[in-house]
Amino acid sequence: MKQRIFLVGLTGSGKTTTAPLVAARLGWPWVDLDHLIEERAGETIPQMFARSVGEFRRMEAALLAEVAAREPVVVATGGGAVLDDANRELMHAAGTMVALEVTAETAIQRVKARGPFPPLLAGGDAEGRWRRMREERAPYYAEADFIIDANDPDPQRVADRVLAGMAARGHITAQVAPEIIPVPLPQTPYEISVAWGALGRLAEQIAALGLPQRLTIITDTTVADLFLPGVLAQMQGAGMAAQVITVPAGEASKSVEQLSAIYDELIAARHERGEGIIALGGGVVGDLAGYAAATYLRGVPLIHVPTTLLAQVDSSIGGKTGINHPMAKNAIGAFYQPRAVIIDPAALLSLDDRLLREGWGEIIKYAAALDAELFEHLEARAGTILSRAPEWLTSIIARCARLKAEIVSRDEREAGPRMLLNYGHTIGHALEALTGYGTLLHGEAVFLGMAAEARIAGRLGMIPAELVARQDALSRAAGSPQAIPPLAPEAILEATRVDKKTRGGRVRWVLPTGIGAATTRSDVPDELVIDVLRAWQAL
Amino acid sequence: MKQRIFLVGLTGSGKTTTAPLVAARLGWPWVDLDHLIEERAGETIPQMFARSVGEFRRMEAALLAEVAAREPVVVATGGGAVLDDANRELMHAAGTMVALEVTAETAIQRVKARGPFPPLLAGGDAEGRWRRMREERAPYYAEADFIIDANDPDPQRVADRVLAGMAARGHITAQVAPEIIPVPLPQTPYEISVAWGALGRLAEQIAALGLPQRLTIITDTTVADLFLPGVLAQMQGAGMAAQVITVPAGEASKSVEQLSAIYDELIAARHERGEGIIALGGGVVGDLAGYAAATYLRGVPLIHVPTTLLAQVDSSIGGKTGINHPMAKNAIGAFYQPRAVIIDPAALLSLDDRLLREGWGEIIKYAAALDAELFEHLEARAGTILSRAPEWLTSIIARCARLKAEIVSRDEREAGPRMLLNYGHTIGHALEALTGYGTLLHGEAVFLGMAAEARIAGRLGMIPAELVARQDALSRAAGSPQAIPPLAPEAILEATRVDKKTRGGRVRWVLPTGIGAATTRSDVPDELVIDVLRAWQAL
After folding, report:
1. Res. B332: pLDDT tops 90
2. What's A222's domain CATH number?
């Protein structure tokens, strides 16, 4: 697929606002065709229109051809660019044509906010004129590769829909070799694939697993909005029948109630034992859908398709599934291995910035607890750590997936080394529980937990203060929250006791012993923990 | 332990009613000491009392010594037999002394119903006299091996408490070699032990598994009433701390709500990941507690201690756990292997007759679908098939456990041969669902399901009519219900479609191909099933 995106749509659909946001995430240049025309012509579009519409259209066609020769590029076209058959052919041949669709109300409101009406809407009854224009041009917009709803008042959401739609249709390619990571569990071996563009080949990959053509996609409202139209289009194209179960986005969906609702829908749809469940989404969807797959009919095939960084590097790997108890996170769950984990870093192009940062909490956990080389590599790139470049994302995700897969295949049930993956999680879980799940994102809590636990290790003399500072600096570069919520240290300590790692009433801490090295300890005095938390909060 | 039971208790506590019921289950003779005295003396006890209380007591002591020389025997003593130190010493030395405890109201009501008041209660204010007698004798009854509540208006329940109390304390021994059946699953091997008297050594056996001293027993109201006092006494004696979670008896407890309540209690008690859950009870408790163990903290150690025949031969073996969905039985569940299955056939001495019979539904299933030798062995013993003799129960249970363990270790996830264990279950589950879970017991539904499915096989020409008749005859001997509930055949057929074995919308039937042999078929025409059901119902 060529690296060109053409945004088309009527006046007021938000092409000019959306294009730079799309381009920023991709790291591509962008151009606004109308601005380019005005710049080259040395006059405004209303002036050109008043003089000669024909001349304007000819210039528009010429400049579209000019920008379509650039690559990569995001182009916000003018509203009428689609009228010309040759223009549409050109855009199709050169890249992806995405139509932004809005209601007349949205369009008129936006156009009004910009100043005087443009020529085609001027002269009274702007809304009537806009509606007639829509009627006339609808067949041309329908030729777009895909159409998105652009009514959202948050322009980033509109841009995310464009990016996600591209990813879900395999329209954002990159020259990055895919990485296949085997998880050699004795009874349930499977592969994790980290491949830029994988989401665009999802139907094909599911078919290759030999699963029946009927399946159920479990996702959440946010992810459904972004990826579902593209994914369903693929499934339909491949002759698959997909039932979709959509849960509200957010940690609150990891509940007994939501799980029950999923069972109801699976039973109502007569989802059978051999048919797959696709967990399409972030950690919440993966845990919830994974647990539903583990327990519906005592287990049906599960495919993880993680769409957040946190899910891609951590939660989709290793077979942990579960839901929360009102009194304890992940208190109810099962170890259940998927048939495959299909990771597409391109899905992260549409990921909210905060969610990108929280994913880095787990990445830095891997580095700090297990992988000194990765830690130093990240330190060296600290300035651009949050980049979404294909090679960068693919390599980091694959590295973490490999680390986790390796540990999980040695210790599926967390009896030994797998416990080290809980670095930052004892305090982290306590913070999540005390602030109410969803206030702090999980990865944010892990960042804070690691900061606290590194200080505990420091106080115990296990690591030098310099190492705590290095971890802090790297965390800051990756977008760690800087302040621990104002909670009583005693309450935090108390909340650590319901942790699943507790043995004989004693909390099992995971503490660093150096860069990329950690161990577990059950002999950390309560007073020391409270002291550390108090001192850290005082900063 | 010697095979003698001495029932002691005040007048009206039900010794004479209870003794024959206890003896019948054990297949032991029984004797009523007061009747024996009257017989030997040739006069009534009121007459002897009127003449000389001392002489009565001497004769009582002499005859107690005489019957205490018999073995086995159940003795209903007279109310005052415990007054004599030598009598109590004799009973303790000779066997088990069980005290029946009732309220004054119960006692007076029972004594009144028998006719005139006995000498010690005659002369007015019978209840006051009874209460004073209780006060006086309480210390002697307290010396009993155990005390049970004998207020129940159903005398069989009182007898069951005696029998269960004996079993739970290891007081019913028999010279039957225990059978140890390995379940060699690659990742989770464990042993099933079938051992008469095992319940009396439960604490010791749990300790031998190397589990922590803290554990949780999950049981139901019926089983708690029977076995819990004895089991808890053992645990306490062994220094173990056992939390008990008791659910209402019955299939309705296999619900999301009851499961949630169990999670709440486990979390409230801070049950930790290494601590064991003991599933003490029948199939419902095994499935529910097993599923709780499978999913609490993603899995804690589970020990099955089945107390019904159905649970001992079938549901406790093989790792299936789960709960019901309102629309589909066992729709929610997990495969989860226990650390051990501890089977004590002596627990069945206190099992309700109907529950004993339903257990035979699954035993005949093994014979009919898998084991021709067992089938013929059962046919040869059809007349005494429902005996509770130690050797008989132990050998049959061990045979079935071995059959199931062998199939499960070849096919843990029911991808192949394990499916044959579902003989009788397609129609059986449909009948259970349509009549409302708990109306038909599971084993009863399996009996009926096998009858229907044998007829389907017959109609398909897979087996001769004579074989259907043999299966019917054996089922009848084992107490199968004789009539299918009056349900529309179309409704039964429809209900089979939600079965977990369904593939591509087609029901996978398990059908016999001979004695001790079966296969699966998905090509059974709907009309044939309806025809068979209609013809069978018409009988």
Report:
1. yes
2. 3.40.50.1970
